[in-house]
Amino acid sequence: MLIRPAEAQDDDGIWRVVEPTIRAGETYPLARDLTKADALAYWRSSAHEVHVAEAGGAIAGTYYLRANNQGGGAHVANCGYIVAPSATGRGIARAMCVHSLERAGALGFRAMQFNFVISSNERAVRLWQSCGFHIVGRLPDAFEHPGLGLVDALVMYRKL
Description:
Blueprint: E1 2-5, H1 11-24, H2 36-43, E2 49-55, E3 58-67, E4 76-83, H3 92-106, E5 111-118, H4 122-130, E6 134-145, E7 149-159
Parallel strand pairs: 4-5
Antiparallel strand pairs: 1-2, 2-3, 3-4, 5-7, 6-7
């Protein structure tokens, strides 16, 4: 597997990865009817450093890295990760997390915070915990899951 900075020609591959997650609406808090153009504009915001994970010559995952806040909070990074449904369970999310932690440290960040981890996404919660993140907050009923109804969102944090 190769993790590298995303390039303009990767947009179709990034869309193929993020679209199923957006449409499912179960693990990422974006509108389920988001268009390709709007999804890519969000993912590729000028404030985001975007990377892709390639496996077998195709984009299998993507993440963005950014400052969680400005000013006095700019030393804390934030990331968003999505793995293609066909690539889950192959270590891609873990590899992207490790890569993002290393990249954040290289950029001078001193911590990383995930603002809105859907509590019903137990697999991700366990993965982030195994990567050193701790649950530091719980937002009751903050996410409307399409199948489960209202579920909590977690705030997770890790020093670098």
